[in-house]
Structure formats: C-alpha cells, structure tokens
C-alpha cells in the first residue's frame, strides 16, 4: 500500500475532518473511474479544476447529512453545461478539453451515486431503528 501525503489548509482539513475516514475510499473510487486509456487527461487537469469538481467538493466540505446527500443536484449552470457537452459528444464535436470536462461530470456522478446509495442505507437503518424503539 502506498501512503499519500496532501498539503491542505487548516480550514480545508477542518472541513474534511467529518469525512476523513471515507477519503481513501472516495479517492479509490474516483481513481477507478478514470478510463485506462485516458489517464493523462484526468491526472493532469487544467490549472483551474473543472467547475463541476469545485461544486462537488464545496458540497462535501459542508459535511452534508444523509438527507442533504440524497437531495444533492449540481447547479442549473452545471446541468446546462452537461447538456451542451452531451450534445457536442453526440455530434462528435468535443475537443480534448471538453472530453476531459465530460469525464469529470461522469466521475462526479459515479461518486455521488455511491454516496447516495450509502446515505440511503443509513437513512433506512435509522428508520428501522426508530421503528423498533
């Protein structure tokens, strides 16, 4: 196993503290979603991360409850951009940068699906526990 050290601000560390135990699993899931034939495109994103990544990370930094995770949707602007990218993809008009951006949307969707499934299980378990009390 490889150890990974990240240098982040104290504020970011404090915000990530509630999900600290989940970070290795989340990073592994993101890494597994990177297409084998496109690792360079995702491994070295532009200097400013894709907006959907920032939106997703900002959401995670709020330490959302299971209910908030279940309700999460990307912003209307992100949804509009995704529709635009999908249309260009259907017409085979994506640039490499746009393909990377579309890949970012797919990765965020994949991780959110996993988070929502876990939140759903947690909420179901809470409901069952309350029912038996």
Topology:
Layout: H1 10-16, H2 23-32, H3 39-43, H4 51-60, H5 66-71, H6 76-90, H7 96-132
Helix pairs in contact: 6-7
Shape: globular
H/I helix tally:
7
Q: Return the structural class.
A: mainly alpha
Question: How much is the average pLDDT?
Answer: 83
Order of H and E elements:
HHHHHHH
Task: Work out the radius of gyration.
Answer: 17 Å
What is the first-to-last residue Cα distance?
43 Å
State the share of residues found in helices, binned by percent.
55-70%
Number of strands: 0
Biggest β-sheet, characterized?
none
Strand-residue proportion: under 5%
Keywords:
single chain; 133 residues; mainly alpha
Structure overview:
- With about 130 residues, the chain is an all-alpha fold.
- It has a domain at about 50-133.
- It has helices spanning about 10-15, 25-30, 40-45, 50-60, 65-70, 75-90, 95-130.
- Helix 6 (about 75-90) packs across helix 7.
Brief overview:
The protein is 68% helix and 0% strand.
